[in-house]
Amino acid sequence: MKIASVATIKAQLSAYLKAAQEGPVVVTRNGKPVAVILAVHDEEELERLLLAHSSKLQALLDAAEHRLHSAGGLRHEEFWTAVEADAEGTEPAASDRSGT
Predict the structure, then answer these.
(1) What is the dihedral of CA 28, 29, 35, 38, to 10 degrees?
(2) Most exposed: 14, 25, 80, 95, by fewest CB within 10 Å?
(3) Domains of the chain
(4) Predicted model pTM
(5) What's the Cα-to-Cα distance from 27 to each of 1, 21, 40, 42, rounded to whole Å?
(6) How many Cβ atoms sit within 10 Å of the Cβ of residue 96?
(7) Percent of the chain with pLDDT strictly greater than 70
(8) Radius of gyration of the chain (CA)
(9) How confident is the model over 70-99, as pLDDT tens digits?
(10) What residues contact 37, with CB distance under 8 A and at least 6 apart?
């Protein structure tokens, strides 16, 4: 892992982008870390990085977790019955949706 100031990074950006291929580069301002330069090896990795820092996605996940805890979720069998019914374009039987 390399550590460099903003001024140094600005002056030698290409070199630090190349260094990021070997590991993270910590960028400092006034001696304090302010950013990290990470290499991206493929589009899936880029997507994972962006999603990991998405406040909208985090809000959706938090809301889903809250609904899951308040409603109790579905049993494994109920979930797959609903998935199969959706694939067939039908509604699951009432007994499958009741949670009993």
Answers:
(1) -40
(2) 14
(3) 1-39 (3.40.1620.10)
(4) 0.58
(5) 11, 15, 17, 23
(6) 19
(7) 91
(8) 23
(9) 888 778 888 889 889 888 877 766 554 444
(10) 9, 16, 17, 20, 24, 25, 27
